[in-house]
## 1
Amino acid sequence: MPPPELQCEVMSKLSKTRSSQEHSRFFFIGPAVLWLLVFTIFPLLYSLYLSLHSSRFLRVTGFVGLKNYHLVLTDYRFWQGFRVTLLFVLAGVALTVILGLLLALLFNHPMRGIKVFRTLATVPLFTAPVAIGYLCMIIFYEEGGPINNFLLAIGLDKVNWLSEPVWAKVAVVFADTWQWTPFAFLVLLAALQAVPNELYEAAALDATSSWQEFVYITLPMIRPALTTVILLRTVEAFKIFDIPFSLTNGGPGLATRTLTFNVYTAGLRDQNLGEATAIAFILLVVMLAVTFVFFRGYRSQYDE
Amino acid sequence: MYRRVPRWKRILIGLAIGAATIWLVFPFYWAVITSLKVPADVFRLSFIPFVQFEPTLQNWSTEITQRGREVFGGLSTSLIVAVSTALLALTIGTLAGYGLARFRYQRWKNKDIAMWILSQRFLPPAATVIPFFLMMRRFGLVDTRLGLILVNVTFTIPFTVMILRDAFRELPVELEESALVDGCSRLQALLRIDLPLVAPALVSAGIISFAFAWNEFLFAFILTYSKATPMTVVIAGTSDTQGIQFWYVSTRMLMAILPPTILAMTIQRYVVRGLTFGAVKG
């Protein structure tokens, strides 16, 4: 038994939030929990089940153990997709975070037009990625697209943006970065503006250089926001499908085919449910492993 | 950070801002002028209407008169799906957000439930797309708007729950406590007292859900093929049927882009908070 005064404190705290006795509390949380059980947890388990079975014409035919995983892990197309996905994650995250941070620092002064720019910056974020893919296809188009026309106009050679594996990857990363940099920019700008001015004033008294100011004041103050940006951005980057689908259709060859793309081709084009769900599960595990590294630090921001 | 900036630095900053603005706007601008060009002008490097090329509304009128059914079918499906998704996700999110803000759950702690709901956003959609397809086929929901709504509500619940949980937490408990003393039920207190006060959060959560549902592609592409294709799937079919007719492609692209982006511009203040699930206050 806790001492009486502590007990009393606990009791009063409980009654203040009227928490645990009211049965109606389940009515409030119920729909959300139920919904996610039916539409997330069940499909995940179903997916796991499928990945351990063979199938024909979208029907399960028998238990095969880890055979699908073995097939997937010995398939060069999987490893190609794996490499492409990792490349897009690394390049996409690094570029968006660096560009977003630079932009946020640039705009962290009182200036005219900042509201307009901020409003404009929300536009790519709320544009369908599949539309961005097509917009970029028009821009990167090799015969007469604006970028190649511009390169020709200034006396350079045109670039095979969509038909050369390396450049196709560049084009996808460009489109993805273009969409997500505003996210990093907006979040980091909000974080920068929340840094109290007194800190900089104190630093000015000590005559610190702006680099020192950045490293010792700005960076530690915006670290939580930076972690959030990196985490959420990484998660989204692992899911990339729409942009390679619309911009390059996964090509040329397999050059821009990501893991999600592989799930789509294996599952719905080749109707091989077992292998497709095995790929999906490997993707899930990789993603969880990567996010787990950040997860504990991130979680603290949501604690009461 | 309000220190005096030397002149050369100011010029440099100005140039950088100019470059950033062009970078941000160029793809949209190019789509707009492409949609206003005659085919012969599309593959020429020209930027300024009236000066460098003669703009025309020909593409827009062709698109609307000849392929209107396809385009407006896509737009209306997207609209119905996105609005229904937003309303349903808001209902579920309001209840759960209120529950997480006002009660204390015991077997699973509040923050565990919140993290569990949030972790839905961390799942790759690829991990559930195939079982979803089979489930929808089983229940005859393939190529229906209802199927799409179910998918999109699943993906947007984390947004509505987290945004509204935050909003309810910021309200003083005392307001509704007096109502509860006066004999209101929990639900009445929520509907009459709290809900009007969190209206801005409701609107932003609704718009974010609307936009995500409108922009969703992978599931829509797999679950629909003719009767219930939303705009994202319609534009994906454009390149097959019309090849490289960029002047038509860009008109469709713009119609697909405008609704969610215009709505999003009105919730400026909530974008940062909403998209980071409340981790960063904008």
## 2
Amino acid sequence: MGEIGHGGIEIVERIMDPKEAKEKIKGLPQVPIRSQIANEVIGIAYGFFSPLQGFMGKADVDGVCKNMRLANGVLWSIPIVFDMSNDEIQQYGVKAGAKVVLTYTDNPMALFEVEEVFEYDKEEMCQAVYGTKDPKHPGCARTYAYKDKFVGGKITLVNRPKINPPFEPYFIPPLQMRQIFKEKGWKRVVAHQTRNVPHTGHEWLMKGAWLQAYGELPIDKPYVGVLVNAIIGEKRKGDYIDEAIILTQDELRKSGYFGDHNHLTSLTFWDMRYAGPKEAVFHAILRTNLGLTHHMFGRDHAGVGTYYGPYDAHILLESVKNDLAITPVYSMNWLYCPHCGEVTSEGLCNHKKEWQKFSGTLIRSIVDDGVKPPRLIFRPEVFDLVMECAEKYGFGSPFVTDEYLQKRTPVFVIPPLQ
Amino acid sequence: MAGEKYPINIWVNEERYEKLQKAGLASMCEEVLAGLKVIKVYADEGQKDEILKKYPTAKFDSATTKSIELLPRKVKDQIFDLVVQKQSVDVMDEFLKNY
């Protein structure tokens, strides 16, 4: 029996042998894809999105929108769709039964076996997934930007992505990840979802979740790990640059705030939808496939603006817990208490009037003002690395700028098919 | 809520601290977060909205700190200079009129 993923279904990598691939794709129409779709091809092919075998057909999209389930009944919260314009459909001869090659960075990436071409009401999709039709919601904006039709069908990777430095060691697909967990002897692993450089509030969220997950396990050796799983996808101006995020997360281990025995950093390619509760369910599915047993969910998980209540994600997760093979760990905020002289949990400390809350945004504002935050708030090794990343990767800034977006080295490319 | 005020945190780096000391205003700094010096300049609801509209990179941290963050450094320098000039943190009216 292989590795069992979400929905109790075996995880199968959909990756073709390169020699076979060259023959299989010969003469097929080549369809260029954008980065969002390339990220999702990787998600499907390596099993991050198991049990999906390809882009969704209408029955799956309908099931996800109306019942939060795939057509086969498995829980799923966000449509994974491939959109095309009518002109492109005609140009590439896309129809049920056709095969096309998806290309990225000008090279063949995946075989797409088309099963159906269909339309779906985008407003309906937005309302179902995001709980709003507001085009200002970034997930709705993405949905409205989809082209005329959707194409469903199976995906098989024909050419593995080349992950560029410094990201390469952090790309650990589900089957490989599960092997690493076995080698480390971890019986429980708790996921930390992030798109941020860690301050000590994040560090303590992880430490708190580690303690929560440890529970009744014996302490003769470490049986619990934290997996930082950074979401790498579309960037917005003002975000921390990807290089700073991934390297500083790992720095917490390298600098001894964690260790090899309890901490690992990795990435998943995904363009955030900011779907709040629905995205929380999606993250739970993703991390189930990665082999995790627990998942941290804080306040307003994957939310944006004021579209969702702070604990909506927790409520939705509770309602579907029997369909998930991962245990949610709900995290309270950590803050600085000058009376205690330490970072503490709002669930523990009672010096409420003295509490000093801090956030990623606040830390960014401190860094922007040219001030080095105290080590209790932001680890000096993390600060130094952020500054190093600014010089090395960020064209002088740790935050995404127009120049970074134009000139950065892509996280991955598809090399020529050998 | 009527009358609510939202802080703009001007973090005091060495350069700013030197200016404050020269003006005899070093005591204006509050110390927060385990040793950080900050000057808090407050904006009311209308001023907050005006600032966020005028400087699109700025963000109101509604979830955690209820403060206006990520104003461009240059803008914060201007607010800071006004604080030093006026010897007061009550400068937002004048700042929004003149800058």
## 3
Amino acid sequence: MTGRAILLMIGKRLVALVVLVAILSFLVFSLVHIAPGTAVDAYLGGKPATPELVQLLTERYHLDEPFFTQYWLWLKDALVFDFGESTLTTLPVTDEIGIRLGPSAFLAVYAYVLTVLLGVVPGIIAALRQRKLLDRGLVAGAVVALSTPPFVMGILLLYLFAVLVPIFPAAGRGEGFFDQLWHLTLPALALALCVAAFLLRHTRASMINVLDQDYIMFARARGLSWGHVLFRYAFRNALIPVVTVSGALLAFFFAGAVFVEATFSLGGIGELLVQSAQSSDMPMIQALAILIAVLIVLANLLADLAYVAIDPRIRFEGRSA
Amino acid sequence: MSPHTEPTLTAGRPVLEVEGMRIERTDIGAPIVTSLDLQLAAGESIGIVGESGSGKSMSAKALIGLLPEGVVASGTARFDGQNLLGLSERQWRSIRGRQIGMIMQDPFTMLNPVMRCGRILEESLLPERRLSRAERRAEAIRRLAEVGITDESVVERYPFQLSGGMRQRVAIAAALARDPKVLIADEPSTALDVVTQREVLALIKRIQAARGMALILITHDLRVAFATCDRIQVLYAGSLVETGRADDVRERPLHPYTQGLLLSEPPADRRVRQLVAIPGSVPSAADVQDRCSFSSRCRWAEDACRDGVPALAEVGEDRHSRCIRLPEIGAEMAALLSKSEERAVVPAEGRSDGALIDIVNIEKVFESGGRTVTAVDDVSISVREGESVGIVGESGSGKTTIARMLVGLESPSGGEIVIDGIPVRSWSALTPRDRRKLRQTVQTVFQDPYSSLNPMRTIGWALKEAITTHDRGGGNVEGRVAELLESVGLSASYAQRRPSSLSGGERQRVAIARALAVEPRVLICDEPVSALDMSVQAQILNLLQEVRTERGISCLFITHDLSIVRQASEYLYVMHHGKVVESGPTESVLDNPSVEYTAQLLNSVPRPDGQWLVTGDADEMAATRG
């Protein structure tokens, strides 16, 4: 019966997603008309306005139709992933994004896994060794990592592990799983370290708080082994707040990797976003904005589902006696 | 069976012998417990009684090897041929749960919130008993039955789905899952409502007798200790001040502190003229390690008391006291004790006319998770000029919701509230002038003095703020602050101090002073003493009484404690499940309750005799209540 409640929650979230995307699509579409100059100028993207080209664009984007009809026609195309052509490269927007989606997703997931490993594990260790040397070292390290921007970290890692000790490639994204893994290790690390430091401190605080709870002492007073108390009691409770924050990170890694992508010449989504903004590449901006919005909502939904799985109090909310 | 029937006969060989246990913090070398001795025989129950800061909880943790980091215990605690205080973590593992079990105070935080009750019990069973899944489940259900839970579905439920009393029962079952010989119960009933408190204590006693288990009960409540234990040890600021058989200590306390505690407790069966409060507050063990720990608050203290730590001397059969002046002051102590038995003149019945607060058919409905909960259901209450009105009820009875509605923190869903002629059903609809007038009419004293004062500001600042927000005229504000402080028994120098340097009782005095700053006509006191130590409670109750008679203000006194409401109110409303079930002059309601529920509440108030816990089927009743 809790299964039904969860399905209901997912359903509600998906409806919210549709509403959100509908509103966003309208705003994003309006951009073309809000931007300085006419809609044709926006689609021209700086190319000379020859009569042929103007006519072509007017037909392609139905610019002679009323505003809402234009929107409707644009939306119908967008639903089948047709956002038009990039004004910069004249290639279909969807193709452009498609090429970069794979590596960006790979990088994001890789960085996410590294973040969780490098954040949660040392965070737990630091909490268990509270106020000891190891704890102080880890916390100090976290402060350094937290205050180093990812692109500085990227350059540092590049210098250390691609130039000084060349064990990783300096650029490119590689082909096939292991080659990609090899190529993307440094970028993923650069991206992960800063956030991992944040997660470390978060996990440490949460773990310390949980270790101080009565139920830990009561479990030990019953003679349960330390390992049992640690795994079944401390970790599970301490990770509840960690799971909630880590959900948002995945979406962040996906769209926020601009500097790292530039440092390692990866050509990912982030780079594309900056590029299209600089050159007012309207169709590209529209498609990317919607893509990122959908990703953020889905990542948060995943985090909430994990939350529900890990904490029964959420499942029974409002139904407890 | 009374627990006082010759404990020496039932007492077998000693299972636990503690000698000169000292607990201290290693970082600053400050003692928490300077010396504790204890002899626990098989099947015996000993009560360690003390206020906060006495070191009673630390003693419990030391005896199960769970002292926090940076705190160490020395001395000996002989159990089964070994000294517990020198055991390694590995050795402790064969003791904890199997030999010595422990339950703690708060049933709401003691159980793993993400684990079903059945799992909690199953994992607590002896690991070397290789049981199948089904057998483990059956064992869990059997263990629940032992603590009076016959509803098998409880194994499938999470702790947060159970009431406090049920959780405490599950915790007791879990603590006993490995069948320990000794159970340490650290304030096992303090966080519970009166009715549940009695049920849980009766349950512990019953199981103890059935298993022949020894019990160390740690409590701040002498009455609870008297009713539950064979022997009592009174701990004050880290050292034992008195030990003896429970009935002996109750009838004839032989240390001024024990006597002070007894006198501070408001009796439930009669109204006394004034409670005999112990002045001051509990010192830290470190501050009194070179003298009698009680000397700073003792009315009989002399120089000799401050000259070295008195020995815990034998003063009778199985009776010890640390008071060196006992031979001289014994008669005086006995006289004081009998004087406190005097009843106060019962205030004349009949109420004055002018209603200052008139609550008419009020209702409050909360929406939560698609369900509606009626917290307050058709309640009418009135507070007359100069009168103290009590509202008594258990948690969830709606009493605090009423207080919140009175001061505009909640809006009623129905009914009407009239304060001093102004209808205040919705505070937001009031004119600024009316709102101002109301704030001046009604002031509140909250339960928790630790969170109701801004920690960043001095006491003087808090009082000045209260004075100036209501009276912009200015005048001699500093003078008024000093006056206010003196009116609540604090010197004017407190204005410079911050809340963190004050004890709980002092903070509550400041909170009362702040409420008095606007010269209100009604004081709403929401559990004003329940966060305070017993010896300080009496001070605050006396202060409120004083303030009331001096200023002629009315009072709405909200509490769960029938003994307190007896001392502090003239007219009483008893609430249950959001409804007023009985009302009338306090004395007559408590002497002759006309409703079953009031009688049950009265019966649940701790009485220092052994009969209190002899209740027949109270446990079974609770178990079926869920």
